[in-house]
Amino acid sequence: MQGKGVTLNCTLPVPSVQELVRQQRPDALPPRYLRDDTVVADHHRESLQDLPRIDLGKLMDLASRSTELRNLHSACREWGLFLLVNHGVSDEGMRMTKENVRGFFELPHHEKQKSAQRPGSLEGYGQAFVTYHEQKLDWNDMIFLKCHPPHARNLDLWPRNPPEFRVALEKYSEDMRKLAEAVAKYIGMALGIHEEELDLLAKSFGEGSCQVRMTYYPACPEPERAVGMTPHADATGITLLTECGNVAGLQVLRKDNCWVTVLPVPGTIVVNLGQIMEVYSNGTYRAPDHRVVVNKEKERVSIATFCNPSPSLPVGPSPQLLAATGLPPIFQTLSNSEEFLQRFLSRKLDDAVPFIDSLKL
Questions:
Q1: Which whole-number Å values give the CA distances from 92 to 19, 174, 181, in the listed order?
Q2: What is the rounded distance in angstroms from the CA atom of residue 180 to the CA atom of residue 189?
Q3: Of 26, 38, 304, 315, most Cβ neighbours within 10 A?
Q4: CATH class of 17-358
Q5: pTM for this prediction
């Protein structure tokens, strides 16, 4: 039997939650999905205050840039998450991707199983970071695929149905890669980075890796006792999230330890700073803890794109930032994002020290 000592770079096969709901129509949660109070605390006491909105068009316009950079700096420092408007990704491309992702989850189970995760891998259809047989499970099914660079793709796992799935995902992931390059550039500017270092930061995201996780959260018989996704911070550079409907579920942990619901807003993309950016900013910006809660009546589908800088960029506090502030670095400098991710994946599920703290000097 595998135990809690297993690292995070692989996952065990688990039953499909979607099939469980379809076949059994349970009126109570199966035991493996029942979560304790520390995970589901405050499900019904979350704040619904408006989250920061950042306008990419204003960042691109010299006349409005300085004001919007101040807004971006505040959003990254106080929240680590914001809604991006005027992002430039085409409505048609977004619509096509959402339709194909929903279409995949509507396929018969045996068809989805053609993309099932292989032993020893996180990629494919299944669930992430299940490392022992007694582990409590999240109320979701997902498919996780590597998209960029193209040579990293495992096309054996890319669904052939719906017929336009592959074309839609290829175009969508390319759009997200380009958007991550622009977002990284302006985050660097908001931090006070300039010239060669700013160019290197933006270029590294333009040439970096992207993985896409598409997640289906079925309606849940006891949503107050389950969790769609366990609280965590992303071990990435930048995460870009698209909602495939108007059902809320994502919650972000505010600095005062209050969970705040991120209400879906049509036409926006949620930008979530990952821990690579927290390290790069020397702790000025935060990679927030977030989770997903589930709904008793409605399903939810989301698309998360995890964007990381290329191996050309060391992962450590910005040299320009350290020079400008005169502050000592609080994080180690690793050779690149690949070493950073390997550090994360070599951890164990029950490690007592949070990953971000393990990187501190």
A1: 31, 14, 21
A2: 14
A3: 315
A4: mainly beta
A5: 0.94
